[in-house]
Amino acid sequence: MLDLKFVRENPDAVRAGALKKRLPDRAAAVDKALAIDAELRAMLPRLDAMRSEQKNAGKEMGKLSPPEREAFLVKQKERKVELQAHEEKEKQLRADLDVQMGLIPNVPDSDVPEGKDDSENVEVRRIGTVRQFGFTPKAHYEIGEAQGWLDFNRAAAMAGSRNYILFGDLALLHDAVLRYAVDLLVARGFTPIDPPLLVRDAAMFGTGFFPGGEEQTYRCEKDGLNLIGTSEVPVTSLHGGEMMSEDQLPKKYVARSACFRREAGTYGKDTRGLYRVHQFHKVEQVIVDVGDKARSIQHHHEIVKNAEDMLQAFELPYRVVAVCGGDLGVPQAMKYDIETWMPSRNGYGETHSASRFYDYQARRLDLRYRQKEGGKATYCHTLNNTVAASPRILIPLLENHQQPDGTIMVPPALRPYLGGRAVLGKPVF
RNA sequence: GGUGGGAUGGCAGAGUGGCCGAUUGCGGCGGUUUUGAAAACCGCUGUGCCCUAACGGGUACCGGGGGUUCGAAUCCCUCUCCCACCGCCA
Predict the structure, then answer these.
(1) pLDDT in tens, A132-165
(2) How high is the ipTM of this complex?
(3) List A162, A355, A392, A399, catalytic entry
(4) C1' (B79) to CA (A224) span, angstroms
(5) Which of A282, A294, A343 is nearest to A317 (CA)?
(6) Which chain B positions come under 7 Å from a protein C-beta?
(7) Domains parsed from chain A with CATH numbers
(8) What are the residues facing A295 on neighbouring strands?
């Protein structure tokens, strides 16, 4: 949610922002919101005056003698009828305004590149050397199935397409990665969280996934609850409705959770392997801090670095891209993706997504703090980034560290989580 | 699942139809006192919206929504959440 005052004063910038995100419908919401706002403001002085009149007249009532009251009552009832019509109108306008305001996207920051989709994201840096194999490398699913680590057929039989089952060492590697990610962030001062996986609509709306993301979300209609697609939703919502004191900030959280995505509209896309699946596990970092732009940008770099440090420890080549306007989500002001080298794709595949929102989510969540200086109630800023999403991260781990016989070299950083083992699997090729 | 009790400002906690945007305490801010600090004392201290150049004024908000009434924090309905007890289950 943007500040209504800001929208009123900068309609062109807000409209241009929606268009930079390639969201013309949402740009139209700007004009609708402003039209409703104008109509509302036109009636407010009159409405307030009527209320004032009725209120004051009502106060006199108690002091009047019974016969005087009778006459007064007639007059007051007339006022009431007239007021009710206006209040009805006001309520309708406010409800309509809320809908339109909820549709207006966050304005992309100036460092967001122009572009229509992910093909126009801009590479910021490229780290690590892509390995030259002395043999023909296998895809992760070939290795996984040969090792008996992966079963897509049985998964599909019991749970439908885009599902998987991990067995044996791959199940252990999956867990090892997630534990490493949590430990890394805890060592850096983040508070670990095990959040709810089913949340109310308010949390989905507050983080900006609704309206718009309903088709991507598994919903338990009976209970009005939604399965989270990322722990960003419960963790960012954690302090929603609260008034924190400035000393409590920043809040830094790292959550490990299962995530669920319907992947509607992706038929035929990334159908093989572990890349695009309905259910996965993710370690996510979330920061809530004061409403200061420079500080948000500083945090943004910090959370990207946390993820980069993990990839470097895993000895995986990757690149960081600045996500262009057309590939940016509704609530984000700016986003970096990290893409890790995946030999089977002969390219970099997205493994991380780091967003900053400024106060967009905080406004929707009513997430505020009281400033130390002056005591003013102010909206927080929020940010988040993946630390590790698995099994997707298993793709580069298996593929980049494979050996000709189908066994996998374990990067030293992960060995303590695997009983000290340096190699997983047995020769299968 | 059943029964009963609750939800009030940053926090705690009064308030059962007009005198209540709301007593009081804590916290916070400012001041007096002090070499400085603490303590004590005095004053100030919710948020949104509208009007105003400003001073200031108006209005809405007592968990959410609806209703009764000239008038609702207060009465009624409903939803959500919290607490207690019973049942069931892990």
Answers:
(1) 999 999 999 999 999 999 999 999 999 999 999 9
(2) 0.86
(3) A392
(4) 13
(5) A343
(6) 10-11, 18-19, 28-29, 45-51, 57-60, 66, 70-71
(7) 4-103 (1.10.287.40), 118-424 (3.30.930.10)
(8) none
